[in-house]
Design brief:
Layout: E1 3-4, E2 15-21, H1 23-29, E3 33-38, H2 44-54, E4 66-69, E5 72-74, E6 85-89
Parallel strand pairs: 1-3, 2-6
Antiparallel strand pairs: 2-3, 4-5, 4-6
């Protein structure tokens, strides 16, 4: 587990989000939990795009990522808050990554 820091200036990215990865996503990234610092206007789409940029093996289409925030499935326009937990849920069967 580690933190991805986007900047040395903490004020620029005040949200810290805990990220959980399961199954194929966990295998592709090489760990099941990490933290990411994001800007205060971040949404699930912001997080999905950042994860895809940092871990291109995760997906080539960030819009296809299914994310649960604080144990509830969330649309990509859902606003994130400091301390949120975002779980990336891979397709279970019949889907593609």
């Amino acid at each position: 587990m580690y933190t991805i820091l986007w900047s040395n200036i903490e004020e620029a990215f005040p949200l810290k989000v805990r990220i959980l990865l399961f199954a194929a996503y966990r295998e592709r990234v090489g760990q099941g939990e990490l933290y990411m610092d994001l800007p205060d206007d971040a949404t699930v789409a912001t997080l999905a795009n950042a994860m895809s940029a940092h871990y291109p093996m995760l997906t080539d289409n960030p819009k296809s990522l299914v994310v649960a925030v604080n144990h509830e499935y969330s649309d990509h326009d859902h606003s994130l808050e400091d301390g949120d937990e975002a779980a990336f849920i891979p397709p279970v069967s019949g889907g593609s990554l």
